[in-house]
Design a protein that fits this description.
mainly alpha, 4 strands
């Protein structure tokens, strides 16, 4: 969860949502600073996403667990509302810069989106639930949707970014298809 300037862990736990969010924010910063060629930053962003996929990814149900040690299985396997949207951001960021491995990140994105949509979004009244179990079932006492810490920017940013990235990826796909004809 906490690290030094070179991203060496300084805590005995990893927050998979923060790692995924950091990957997205690192790449956003390189674009705003017009340093898109910063290979070290791109490599670090991919390492953060890959770490979360290795230790925090739920291969059975999709989506990301809450947290765990820097190397080892997760210790908090609930799925928290903001972690899934940040996972979508991190995965789409990784897909954009990964080259040949982009399809793996896009598949994980689709699975994370499906889990979030199917288990965390309140389809009757809107918004999303605070937390669910690893399989998406409600956690006792956690069906609320508002908390003092819950803000709209995680979900809103993820949805806007996903729309942008998926449209851009589709445009790139169509361009590649035209070039091969």
């Amino acid at each position: 969860m906490f690290c030094s300037r070179d991203f060496t862990p300084m805590d005995e736990r990893s927050s998979f949502g923060h790692e995924l969010e950091t990957a997205y924010l690192l790449l956003e910063a390189t674009e705003l600073l017009q340093r898109d060629d910063d290979r070290k930053t791109r490599r670090k962003a991919l390492e953060l996403v890959d770490h979360s996929l290795r230790w925090g990814w739920d291969q059975t149900n999709g989506g990301f667990y809450d947290e765990g040690p820097p190397t080892g299985p997760p210790t908090r396997t609930s799925k928290v509302w903001w972690v899934q949207p940040e996972g979508m951001n991190g995965l789409l960021t990784a897909a954009r810069i990964a080259g040949d491995n982009a399809s793996d990140y896009r598949k994980a994105f689709a699975s994370t989106w499906q889990f979030f949509r199917d288990h965390m979004v309140d389809h009757k009244y809107g918004g999303c639930y605070d937390s669910v179990s690893a399989d998406g079932s409600p956690l006792p006492g956690r069906r609320h949707k508002a908390t003092p810490w819950k803000t709209a920017y995680h979900v809103t940013r993820a949805m806007l970014f996903a729309i942008h990235e998926l449209r851009h990826a589709d445009d790139g796909y169509r361009t590649r298809q035209k070039a091969t004809r």
